[in-house]
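Hi V.,

You were right to ask for the full record rather than a summary. Here it is.
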Amino acid sequence: MLSIKHLTKIYSGNKKAVDDISLDIQSGEFIAFIGTSGSGKTTALRMINRMIEATEGQIEIDGKDVRSMNPVELRRNIGYVIQQIGLMPHMTIKENIVLVPKLLKWTKEEKDKRAKELIKLVDLPESFLERYPAELSGGQQQRIGVVRALAAEQDIILMDEPFGALDPITRDTLQDLVKTLQRKLGKTFIFVTHDMDEAIKLADKICIMSEGKVVQFDTPDNILRHPANDFVRDFIGQNRLIQDRP
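Predicted structure:
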């Protein structure tokens, strides 16, 4: 379980990017953080792997405070996918996929086996392992970005608007792929998005944020049926609301 307790991030000028949020995320859940620009959703995500250090509060993974862990080791054990994909252009697809296993000193046989397993998971041919990122389409590159985050058997995968730059058809296909992978592998996915339809489609629970605070944290169905306040109602849009019927 991942437990966030009274998490706060204060920048200069006493600006609170994240303001006293508390959440419990169960192992194997798919959680979407969503909110307007500046709501704190990406800051909250990046505090989980200590890309940003919290000002106050704590984050525990299976009861262990992340501040007690070496930040480099912590990041190697948490998958991370970003919109920019971040593949190394001078490395082959295989080398990109097994980057973290290489740092963890896996054997060549273990790395080769893992690369073949993962490229199969995302429905790309094994021959792509010897190609370079520039030889793949944007959607294919993002598939590699996703499986790279799974390469070292990480239990928690953070995804920061990974499909925001893709065309609608590619984005829809990758959403289906990510949800299938998450269910199949039983990993905990924490996903930042600004797209409510994407959050509803993917998430077991949605965390709606505004001005650094959690406004509502619940299942998509409960949020659509019982929005916490006018902000949530306006944010999700009248056309998505589910009216309770007798």
